[in-house]
Amino acid sequence: MTSGPQDPQHGGWGPPPGQGPEGQGSPGQGQPPYGQGQQGGWGPPPGQGQQGGWGGPGQGGQPQYGQYGGYPAAPGGWESGPPEEPQPRPSTVRFGLGAFLASTLINLISLVLGFSDLDEVRRQAATDSGLTEEQVDALVNTTIVITLVLIAAFLLVIWFAWQGHNWARIVLFVLGGISVLLGLLGAGVGLSFLGLVQLVLVAAGIVLLAQKQSNEWYRSERRRRALR
């Protein structure tokens, strides 16, 4: 008669409930304890693979939270290439602007010659208009100042056109066309030699600046400025 259950293999008391036959407190070989992996220790957090630690990428190739790839490449249209080299001025631009410059200088020479004898000019103006001497002086001085300002502004426009600004070429077209029209209208009354030369120079300048070579050069200069 025995006092309790015995181990069928070795005899004696059997292991307590929940323990394997190999020893007390050691997990059995078949079923791991609750919460432990097959190799022991804490398992990886939920949602992560066994090979990656905390913060490492999962085995599925998906990046972890807070990790991003590089920024996408910018579209090709947004990338600006190197600025174009300045093209040499064609002969049509050089000769056309030279014609406008020569016409302006002739206008300045005509002004100097016309006002070389101011006393005679004042007397003639007083006789023709019936104005007093003070009024004639004010009129002559105002005319000189306005003419000089217009000549300076015209020279400035020529300089901008020489630098490749198309708006300056358009201004020369407009002012030159008005000058040619007024010259043709005044030809029936009487046109001096210098006036005729000036008219021819302005017309030549308009024609030269309107040539194909001139148009292409001004377009290239506009593109080059846009890429700066």
UniProtKB/TrEMBL annotation:
Superkingdom as given in the UniProt entry: Bacteria
TM segment ranges: 95-118, 138-160, 167-185, 191-210
Keyword terms: Membrane, Transmembrane, Transmembrane helix
Biased composition (Low complexity): 1-10, 70-81
Pfam family, one: DUF2628
InterPro entries assigned: DUF2628
Name assigned to this protein: Uncharacterized protein
